[in-house]
Specification:
The protein is 73% helix and 0% strand. It is mainly alpha-helical. The protein starts with a helix and ends in a 17-residue tail after the last helix.
């Protein structure tokens, strides 16, 4: 217990010290929200990766999908790395930085308002972002507190309140810069931690070969495999189609999440994009691939304690039970690992939500002539409000982690992904198409919560995203176009001439 507590206290002290240090970088709105658009490649890459992966992945998703799909769940981690990280940086990184800087946009709703010349779109987008980031935050608290309960045997509510308070302190003090620096520190902890945990868990099962052999003996309880053994060690697992839905939601979904895309706004130069692409992809392969790979062995740890009275599996309890047999030192490292992942995600969520509500909803709409000082004050107040609201939901969560995450990601990515992606590349996107994407994205996710016409909220979220990618071009061809002059001026940012050294380009 002493080892675990010492690690925890040191971690907390470092996080707060970073917040105090970064306070001098948060004196105006641009610095508080975007770090002055001068964040380097390593900080940006780690901020992207650590915001991507939290206790939701390590505890909720790894446990649930590892149990369902076995070793094939590793495909989810690889999809996260190559679609959610590598491809996202290549497709979105440079264009997002250039256009948002040209439009002077600090948030995703602000981008919609300026790109499509519509204050109504900006206001509705900010409302969607605020409402659907709450369940995501609640799911992060839930996953982390289960590990704390296992490691320290302290009540759930104490874990939630302590974590919320600490996150609030350093975000309120230092804004985005504090978040980025802490993300880098937390990312280093995550990298070493996940490797140590995987090695320890597999050694406890007699090594990789023996663990695979034992897993291959288990019969699948999924109908498509008809109870045949070996399904959990097969290439695509016992249920490839549902596995594909999870890959789509958790990988492509990041392209439409405000707290993820926001990282591209802060890039400072071309080198940051190239370095960030590589670093964030390698980070995702190790962290996400490692989490799902570890979760794939979950059935080897089947135990009555992870089942409800009726026999149903408590997916959120699988990974904590797997880790409970580790040494005290390793458990301490695991707690810091998941705490790092979760706090980085939480800080991104609360900063995104508060800045969106302040800059896109309250400013010039509810509160006129809002000064820079007042904007900073209101953002800090809203950070507290958002944290308190998410804590209240987390203390009595309506459903298990993966469902909360699926609802949040499905609505946000379903509404935002298509109009954001097409808006960066295609001049022909119309306002009506953006409205249609918002309606379909939120509509599919919310209606499925009540009607349950799609059994899995994960698949509902994936459907919402794919629908948006189809609806936006179709509606754009059928609806009135934006002013050609305004659109030409927006896209002129890509044609501006810049001068670079030969080491950057060999063009004459």
């Amino acid at each position: 217990m002493v080892e675990k507590l010492v690690l925890l206290v040191v971690f907390f002290i470092i996080m707060i010290m970073v917040g105090v240090y970064a306070r001098r970088h948060a004196t105006n709105v641009g610095d508080f929200v975007l770090g002055g658009r001068s964040v380097g490649p390593w900080l940006t890459a780690f901020a992207y990766g650590t915001s991507y992966f939290s206790a939701v992945v390590f505890v909720g998703y790894a446990g649930q999908f590892g149990w369902k799909y076995g070793i094939a769940s590793t495909w989810i981690g690889l999809g996260n790395a190559f679609i959610g990280s590598l491809l996202a940086w290549v497709v979105l990184g440079r264009r997002t930085r250039v256009m948002t800087n040209h439009l002077k946009s600090s948030t995703m709703p602000d981008f919609f308002g300026n790109r499509y010349h519509s204050k109504a779109l900006k206001i509705v987008a900010s409302a969607i972002a605020f409402v659907f980031l709450v369940p995501y935050t609640a799911s992060v608290y839930n996953g982390l507190s289960r590990l704390f309960g296992m490691a320290f045997d302290i009540p759930y509510w104490v874990c939630v309140v302590a974590m919320a308070a600490l996150t609030g302190v350093y975000v309120i003090l230092g804004g985005y810069m504090a978040t980025a620096i802490n993300d880098f520190i937390q990312g280093i902890v995550m990298l070493f931690g996940i490797i140590a945990v995987i090695v320890s868990i597999l050694n406890g099962q007699g090594g990789f070969t023996e663990a695979i052999g034992n897993l291959a003996q288990l019969e699948s309880d999924i109908p498509v495999t008809m109870g045949q053994p070996g399904a959990f060690t097969s290439f695509f697992g016992p249920d490839p189609m549902n596995l594909l839905g999870v890959v789509i939601l958790t990988s492509l979904g990041t392209w439409g999440l405000p707290q993820m895309v926001h990282k591209f706004y802060t890039i400072n130069n071309e080198k940051s994009i190239k370095t960030g692409t590589i670093v964030s992809t390698v980070f995702a392969v190790i962290i996400s691939g490692g989490c799902y790979f570890l979760g794939g062995f979950g059935r080897l740890f089947d135990n009555p304690t992870i089942h409800k009275e009726g026999g149903a599996v408590m997916f959120d309890a699988i990974v904590p039970f797997m880790l409970s047999s580790l040494s005290d030192l390793l458990i301490g490292i695991v707690v810091i690992l998941v705490l790092s992942a979760s706090m980085s995600t939480l800080s991104a969520l609360v900063l995104t939500s508060s800045s969106t509500l302040t800059l896109d909803f309250l400013k010039d709409n509810i509160i006129k002539n809002m000064s820079e000082k007042k904007q900073l004050f209101i953002m800090r107040i809203l950070i507290v409000f958002f944290i308190v609201l998410s804590v209240v939901i987390a203390l009595d969560p309506p459903t298990f982690i993966a469902q909360l995450m699926g609802i949040s990601w499905g609505a946000l990515a379903g509404a935002f992904l298509a109009p954001f992606l097409y808006g960066l590349y295609w001049k022909g996107v119309t306002r009506a198409a953006v409205w249609a994407s918002f309606i379909f994205g939120v509509g599919i996710t919310v209606s499925n919560m009540f009607l349950k016409y799609i059994a899995s909220p994960i698949n509902a979220g994936a459907l919402a995203m794919i629908t948006g990618l189809i609806v936006v071009p179709v509606v754009s061809f059928l609806s009135p176009k934006l002013s050609k002059e305004k659109v030409r001026e927006i896209f002129s940012c890509y044609d501006e001439t810049v001068t670079v050294h030969k080491k950057k380009s060999i063009q004459e």
